[in-house]
Write a structure and sequence with these properties.
binds coenzyme A
């Protein structure tokens, strides 16, 4: 019998500290009106100085386990998607494993920036389908605030911190129907952090430690690319646009989300939007949005859900699943 991988529980965790657009008006030359009109963002959460990506990941993971009716003893695979790990090493997944008092199972991070969770979910799906794991904890967690230049109005208004998680389990019923992952490294310079461990100068300091983005060009590539991945996903499954019950998009900008919804001929009531209160939480954005819509009762068991994301690299991808 075919083994599928099915989401059995979701969880989300946001730091308590809220940063509103009016707070940002006091920090850089911007306005609430500009931010809302251009991005759809009203506020975002920001981690405290002593709060790490692993702290957020732990909050989301525990909630996902609880929702799935599972304990830490059941987990046999941990994948954390993050661009902002606590340390160079050990991986945030290993730090999370330690927090959860889990021992022995594989644990590793995935770095695909905002597409990280979609990548991680696909990898976990493959572990489960091949029988290498039965109960995976898949987390997207970020403290993007640590790699943002809070004096750069072009980027600091966009990002937020948070974590989302799912428990993915072996099941006789689908589950994840298909995944589609892509990358094109030639777009490096449109969205990147200059500094890194092995670049000259070693660990980044000052301006090299912060996100650089050519927003307008990134926007255009994102809209076109996400439109294409919608077509690719529908064609691979022999589905029509009307077969999709919910779109759970990466939450970077409401205008990008609206463009993808138009591509799907989908009314915005069927699109999960959290960018207004979360901002762009990178790898955390898709699982956080999924968790919000599962918990408030919008996404129900058996419904067909399309997850998609786009991010630095560029990377992009989608997962089609029956919830
Ligand atoms: N407040 C006020 N004005 C701002 C501003 C801010 N926070 N940030 C930029 N501006 C200004 C610019 O300086 C520019 O001024 P100018 O015309 O005098 O030069 C003007 O607003 C327009 O800038 P532009 O970059 O062309 O705006 P835009 O409509 O493209 O919106 C983004 C900017 C960043 C919101 C938009 O490009 C975007 O969302 N890009 C994709 C970002 C993204 O998704 N990144 C992550 C991918 S995972």
């Amino acid at each position: 019998m075919t083994t599928f991988a099915r989401i059995s529980g979701t969880g989300g965790y946001l730091p308590a500290k809220e940063l509103t657009n009016s707070d940002l008006e006091r920090m850089v030359d911007t306005s609430d009106e500009w931010i809302r009109e251009r991005t759809g963002i009203k506020s975002r959460r920001v981690a405290d100085d002593n709060e790490t990506t692993c702290d957020l990941a732990e909050g989301a993971a525990r909630r996902a386990l609880e929702a799935a009716g599972r304990t830490t003893d059941d987990v046999d695979l941990i994948i954390v998607a993050t661009t902002t790990p606590d340390r160079i090493f050990p991986s945030t997944a290993c730090l999370l494993q330690q927090r959860l008092d889990i021992h022995g199972c594989p644990a590793f991070d995935i770095q695909a920036v905002c597409t990280g969770f979609v990548y991680a979910l696909d990898v976990a799906d493959k572990f489960i389908r091949t029988g290498a794991a039965r109960c995976a904890l898949v987390v997207g967690a970020e403290t993007m605030s640590r790699i943002i230049d809070w004096n750069d109005r072009a980027t600091c208004v966009l990002f937020g911190d948070g974590a989302g998680a799912v428990v993915l389990e072996a099941s006789d019923e689908p589950g994840i129907l298909s995944s589609h992952l892509h990358a094109d490294g030639s777009y490096e310079k449109l969205l990147y952090v200059p500094g890194g461990v092995s670049t000259s100068g070693g660990c980044p300091t000052g301006d090299d430690a912060y996100v650089k983005m050519r927003g307008n060009e990134t926007f255009r590539v994102a809209v076109n690319t996400l439109g294409r991945i919608v077509d690719e996903t529908l064609a691979a499954n022999g589905l029509d646009k009307s077969d999709i019950d919910w779109l759970v998009p990466h939450q970077a900008n409401i205008r990008i989300i609206q463009a993808t919804a138009r591509k799907l001929s989908m009314p915005m009531e069927r699109v999960v939007v959290t960018v207004d209160t979360h901002g762009n939480t990178s790898a955390a954005s898709v699982p956080l949005a999924l968790d919000v819509a599962v918990r408030d009762g919008r996404i129900k068991r058996g419904e067909t859900v399309l997850l998609e994301a786009f991010g630095g690299g560029f990377t992009w991808g989608s997962v089609l699943l029956k919830y």
